[in-house]
Amino acid sequence: MTEQDPRSLTEAEARVEFQDLDAKIAAADLAYHQEDAPDLSDADYDRLKRRYLALLDAFPEFAEIGARVDTVGAPAASGFGKIPHAVRMMSLGNAFEDQDVEDFASGLRRYLGLAADAPLAFTAEPKIDGLSLSLRYEQGKLVQAATRGDGAVGENVTENARTIVDIPHELTGAPEVLEVRGEVYMSHADFEALNARHAETGGKIFANPRNAAAGSLRQLDAEITRARPLRFFAYSWGELSEPLAATQIEVIRRFEALGFQTNPLTRLCETIDEVLAHYHSIEAQRADLGYDIDGVVYKVNDLSLQERLGFRSTTPRWAIAHKFPAELAWTHLEGIDIQVGRTGALSPVARLHPVTVGGVVVSNATLHNEDYIAGLDSKGEVIRGGKDIRIGDWVQIYRAGDVIPKVADVDIDRRPAQAVPYAFPTTCPRCGSPAVREEGDAVRRCSGGLICPAQAVEKLRHFVSRSAFDIEGLGAKQVEQFHSDGWVKEPADIFELKARYGSGLQQLKNREGWGDKSASALFQAIEDKRNIELGRLIFGLGIRHVGEVAAKDLALHFLSWETLVQAADLARPAAVAHRAADEAELAERHAAQTEGRRARISDVRAAAIAALDVPAEAQAAWDDLISVDGLGPSVALSLSDAFANAEERAAFDRLVAHLTVIAPEAPSEDSPVAGKTVVFTGSLEKMTRAEAKARAEALGAKVAGSVSKKTDILVAGPGAGSKATKAAELGVLTMDEDQWLALIGQA
What we know:
The structure is a single chain. The protein is an alpha+beta fold. It has 5 domains: 6-69 and 326-414, CATH 2.40.50.140; 82-308, D-amino Acid Aminotransferase, Chain A, domain 1 (2-Layer Sandwich); 464-494 and 496-529, 5' to 3' exonuclease, C-terminal subdomain (DNA polymerase, domain 1), CATH 1.10.150.20; 535-662, no CATH class; 677-743, Rossmann fold (3-Layer(aba) Sandwich), CATH 3.40.50.10190. Helix content is 39%, strand content 18%. It is built from 27 helices and 24 strands.
């Protein structure tokens, strides 16, 4: 079963996944950092965040777990020293079917501009289910070892790493600076022997080899680690003082020559057919390897191509992990709970009798929405053979991508006689307001708005999340408690906490769990956030569709809060017209379907917009807003709606009155296009559109999706159409691809 493409999910489906991810990551953090007994593999833990990032790309309005956006792994535990990674430790994108791998290779060819028959080789190696470790050598000597941590900072486990037999203390013929990265693991035989010894002495019994390896490496006493049979496979690198080789496979061979253990099943594959054949070969050998793996990793072999492909925020473009199929299990559905999200969406979650699926105990599963419960997909098509889901049913559970628990099937033969079809609530379980389902929306939403405590609390949780205001000491639990006690009803109240609860009879320091020191620390942390970056402020407001990436893009485009507000106000009449056009389009589609005719969409939209007679100034502001690359009308409409809502606008104003908003850092002036707005159109022949955009942004330019008065340069390839025409009308500097490359010094 494959992990469903995020863009094919409904809003409710995506929201439930976010809520599941939040709970799972929080639980994993507790198990990993406080109990030293992780119940998720390192790969599973990272997959939670990779899936979250994929969902965030598709549904930016669901950025309810902002703390997870830019992280990989988890923060370093307090019991260890911290080591910053000179080169960030990344995670990997996932593939679950052979077709996903073929799509990955096709995407690389498109990005690189390679023909379908051009050579493109890959390495394929087992993905070890262990703990990532980075080893730093200087002048041939091991000087430090660090866990992945959050990708930027890891735990100092140097003395523990020195006890692992596979890790050399000195190297001959190595570069002056060499960071070797790989996986610490424990073999099945050693794991069983360790647990047998612990059973005899009353020691801790580990759940699986990965947990045993993680707990052993992260001991504060290196002598305990020495007594544990840990192994290490090398497969990657971080900082280098000089290149190791020209290809991935040659680097692996260089590691072997330096004395490291590398996986003997690593292969160089010249074609995707060879890659997939090796995957299935490894899959067939999996049970007999003697150590745990959870997939096969593919990497572009040519390191110069790896450099061209570069990285996304947390994953390289040139590598992917091909996961093994998910496991299945049957269990009893004990109930269906309805969760209310930040936007009022009612999301059903199955409450299950706990069952182990893929090495993890599962007690909840997503049910997506009321149609899914009834046996229909988001398009109204029958799923599960039309079998609905009822409380009391026996259901088959799988972990999509070995992460998100979902219902695969229902055993009708075991259905209790008293089981009845589930009646989805039509009122909000939190505030009692009507829960309505609009035309074309698969989600039922609470209409209570600000009076609904679920929405208010979720907005506050979002506001204090790591990618938003990230106030030290004020996390989700604290802000929920303050809201419950009536101390904080909206974000502005946070900045009044000290004035209202720093002295007098009702003081923060007198609350359970707080004291003088912790209260003072919180007040200082709040003070520190009175100076806030514009992008964080925009993201923290929790405006629907405005995720972290959109917030940063808006900040870079408008550069100040005042300019953004003015643009939203100016564009409002045009936004109203486009909203009316959307409603008219929906009505026309419905009417056309009913009458059996073809819908006149363009005519209906044009008439709706013309009827409102949008002022030229408003249209210009709207055009500017939607020209921000990657935003589009949906984000612009949400932004306009938020600023036009009297209650929300007043709350924004009360918040900003407490803040000094920091403008984004001005683009570097060291390039001829720094600070300029560039639009690409037509077919580029010497680079792909993705490469062109990445290069322009790296040089400090802003890349827009449409031409406007603010456009400085239009790069037009063959086939340039309306954008070139508009650029000519506006007098925008237009150049071809060769002129552009000459301008940026890359001809």
